[in-house]
Write a structure and sequence with these properties.
mainly alpha; three-stranded mixed beta sheet; elongated; SKP1/BTB/POZ_sf
Length: about 250
C-alpha cells in the first residue's frame, strides 16, 4: 500500500486577498449586475457565485452559453448589502455594518451573523433604510429572536413602518404585506393601556389580525397557566419591564 501523500496547506490570507481583489472587478468577469435604485453596475464571476451559493446557482444557471444572462437586474437590492454578500462569497469573511445586513441570499452562516449583529444593535438597525427594504423572509428570523435589544412597543412601530413601505412599493394593503410577519409580534408583552392604543390604531389602519389582539388580551386575563407561557408572552432581551409581566413568570433567559 502506498503511503499517504503529504497535504500542504497554504496561507489563507493571500488566497483571500487574491479573490477579494476580484470583487466588483471587470477582470475576467462574465456576469454583470445592475443593482439598487441607483442602478449601479457591479461585476462578478459566474463560476465562483454558482459554486458558493445556491441562490446564484439557480439565478445564473449551471452552464454558460446562449440563453444564460450576462446582465442581471436586481433593482430592489441595496447596493451596499449586495457588495457585502459578494465580499463574503469571494473571501469567506465580511465586515458588517448596520446598512449592509439587509440581504443574505440564503447564506446560512452569513445570515446567522447578520441576525446576531442586528440583535446587538437592534434600535440602530430598526431605524435604517435597509430594515425597511428587508423581505418578509429576512424579517421573520429577527422577529422570532429572543435576543433583540428593543422593546416590543418599538418593534410594533418598526413593523408598521416596514409594512407601509412594502405596501407603497407593491401597491398592496398594509395588512396584506404584514401578514407573514406580524404573527411574530409578542403583543401580550404590552401593558393594557398600550394594547388598547394599538387596538384603536389597528381599527384606523389595519396591520394585525383581530384574533391576534384577542389572544394578547387573553394572556392578560389568564395571567397564569399554560396559555400564558408560549412564545407570544416570552420576553425579549430588550423588553422593558411592566407590572403585568410578573404574572407571566417568564424572565428572559
Amino acid at each position: 500500500m502506498d503511503p499517504p501523500g503529504l497535504v500542504v496547506h497554504g496561507k489563507a490570507e493571500p488566497f483571500s486577498a487574491a479573490l477579494g481583489s476580484l470583487v466588483n472587478s471587470p477582470r475576467y468577469s462574465d456576469v454583470r449586475f445592475v443593482v439598487g435604485q441607483e442602478q449601479q453596475e457591479i461585476f462578478a464571476h459566474r463560476c465562483l457565485l454558482a459554486c458558493r451559493c445556491n441562490f446564484f446557482q439557480r439565478l445564473l444557471g449551471t452552464e454558460s452559453g446562449p440563453g444564460v444572462p450576462s446582465t442581471v437586474v436586481l433593482s430592489t437590492v441595496p447596493t451596499e448589502a449586495f457588495l457585502a454578500v459578494l465580499e463574503f462569497l469571494y473571501t469567506n469573511s465580511v465586515k458588517l455594518h448596520r446598512h449592509s445586513v439587509a440581504v443574505t441570499f440564503g447564506l446560512g452562516p452569513l445570515q446567522e451573523h447578520c441576525v446576531a449583529f442586528i440583535e446587538a444593535h437592534s434600535q440602530e438597525a430598526l431605524r435604517t433604510q435597509g430594515f425597511l427594504e428587508l423581505s418578509a423572509a429576512a424579517l421573520l428570523p429577527l422577529l422570532r429572536s429572543d435576543k433583540l435589544c428593543v422593546d416590543e412597543a418599538e418593534l410594533v412601530r418598526a413593523a408598521r413602518s416596514w409594512a407601509r413601505v412594502g405596501a407603497a412599493v407593491l401597491e398592496r394593503p398594509v395588512a396584506e404585506v404584514a401578514a407573514p410577519v406580524v404573527k411574530e409580534l409578542r403583543l401580550a408583552l404590552l401593558a393594557p393601556v398600550e394594547l388598547s392604543a394599538l387596538e384603536e390604531q389597528n381599527r384606523q389602519e389595519p396591520l394585525i389580525p383581530v384574533e391576534q389582539i384577542v389572544e394578547a388580551w387573553k394572556c392578560h386575563a389568564l395571567r397564569r397557566g399554560d396559555e400564558a407561557r408560549g412564545t407570544p408572552c416570552r420576553r425579549r432581551k430588550g423588553t422593558l419591564p411592566r407590572e403585568h409581566h410578573r404574572f407571566l413568570d417568564l424572565a428572559f433567559k
